[in-house]
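Lecture 7 notes: from sequence to structure.
We start with the chain below.
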Amino acid sequence: LQSCLLRFASIIFNSKLTRAAEDRHLIPPSQNGFRPHYRTNNNIFILRTLIEQARAEKKTLYVAFVDISNAFAAMNQASLWLKLARAGLTGKYFD
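Predicted structure tokens for the same chain:
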């Protein structure tokens, strides 16, 4: 039962945080994974278009894929809360 309540609280917190970040335009349009009304296959289309454009113009295109799957385990949580506060994401849902 405790894990169900924690999961429910996490969903509510994520919803509030996402809505606040969207309202403040803190998330750029390029960050479209797991967002409503966005599709991740847009990134594939954009990449393919850039590749085709570079080929047509005979230019070199540099692309990097960065794996950040373990980035958040080492994150300083105090710094994260400070950055959220500086972005105006404070109040009863965030404290």
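Points to note: The two ends are 24 Å apart (CA to CA). The chain has three helices and no strands.
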